Each structure stands twice: as structure tokens, then as C-alpha cells.
């Protein structure tokens, strides 16, 4: 029983200790002129859906939930955000070549169709980020048309 108490105390001290370890936050001052929404004629319903479902992980400005202040959750979230931005950053859209844009659009379409994006771990907490069947079709149609116009 004594060993269990010691382990519990050590774990509690470790948990409290990691709360003081800072995390680099994904927040910028503004939206660059090369942002996806600024360089493309995005209908408002699709714009709103992309902002709610994609921009937290795929832009330079994440809207953090309250639980991001608790470690190790903050590390987990930052890992996903860095990974998402490395794959696609909507804020840097117009810096991509036309060929790269077409490739990204194909990937967006494929991942929305297959249900890979938005991630289940994200939509579990952010219910508004989940796509309805109608929204899937609207976004895919828009992305297909944009791809064909490049």
C-alpha cells in the first residue's frame, strides 16, 4: 500500500510539474494576402465550413479550446496542428505552384470523401466541424471546379 501512495504522489507531482512547460501557440496577427479565402472566390457557406472544419489545423491561426491549457493535451494538439500545417496551410495557398495546388485540391477532395478529414478526434469535441452529406457534396463540387480552373 505504501508503494502505491509513493507512486501516486510522484505521478501527481509530475502532472503538476508539466503544467508549467510552455507550448508554442499557432496564432498570428492577421490573414496574409495569399490566403485561400482571399485569392479564390469562395461562396460564404463553403468559406464558413472550411473555417470551422479546417482552419484550426491548416492555417496560422488556431482558435484554442479551454482544455489546451492542460498538459499533456496541449502537446497532443500542437503535434496535430504542426502536422496539419506541414501537409496544407491555407494561409500560404497562393505561394504554391498551380501543379501543387491541383495536387492539394485532389488530396482535399479524397480526404473529405473518405471521411479522413476533419479528423474524428476533432469532430468528437467540435460537433459543428463535422460535414453533413450535403456539405460534403458542396465542398467537393467547389474544390473540383477550382481544380479544373487551374
Short description:
This protein has 150 residues and is mainly α. The protein has seven helices and no strands.
Structural notes for this entry:
The chain is mostly helical and 150 residues long. It has one domain (2-149). Helix content is 56%, strand content 0%. It is built from 7 helices and no strands. It has helices spanning 2-18, 36-39, 44-53, 73-87, 98-114, 120-123, 133-149. The protein is elongated and about 70 Å long.
Sequence-ordered SSE layout with sheet pairings:
Blueprint: H1 2-18, H2 36-39, H3 44-53, H4 73-87, H5 98-114, H6 120-123, H7 133-149
Essential attributes:
elongated; 7 helices; 0% strand; 150 residues; mainly alpha
The main pleated sheet reads as:
none
**Low-confidence segments:** none
Q: What's the count of strands?
A: 0
C-alpha end-to-end distance? 68 Å
Overall radius of gyration = 19 Å
Return the string of H and E elements.
HHHHHHH
Molecular shape: elongated
The average pLDDT value, as a whole number, equals 90
The SS-based structural class is mainly alpha
Number of helices: 7
Number of domains: 1
Helicity, in percent?
A: 55-70%
Amino acid at each position: 500500500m505504501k508503494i502505491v501512495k509513493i507512486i501516486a504522489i510522484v505521478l501527481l507531482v509530475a502532472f503538476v510539474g508539466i503544467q508549467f512547460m510552455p507550448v508554442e501557440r499557432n496564432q498570428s496577427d492577421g490573414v496574409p494576402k495569399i490566403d485561400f479565402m482571399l485569392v479564390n472566390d469562395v461562396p460564404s457557406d463553403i468559406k464558413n465550413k472550411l473555417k470551422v472544419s479546417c482552419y484550426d489545423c491548416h492555417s496560422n491561426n488556431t482558435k484554442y479550446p479551454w482544455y489546451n491549457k492542460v498538459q499533456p493535451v496541449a502537446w497532443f494538439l500542437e503535434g496535430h496542428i504542426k502536422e496539419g500545417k506541414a501537409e496544407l496551410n491555407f494561409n500560404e495557398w497562393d505561394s504554391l505552384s498551380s501543379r501543387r495546388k491541383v495536387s492539394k485540391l485532389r488530396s482535399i477532395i479524397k480526404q473529405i470523401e473518405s471521411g479522413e478529414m476533419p479528423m474524428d478526434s476533432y469532430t468528437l469535441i467540435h460537433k459543428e466541424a463535422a460535414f453533413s452529406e450535403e456539405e460534403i457534396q458542396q465542398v467537393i463540387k467547389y474544390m473540383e471546379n477550382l481544380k479544373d480552373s487551374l
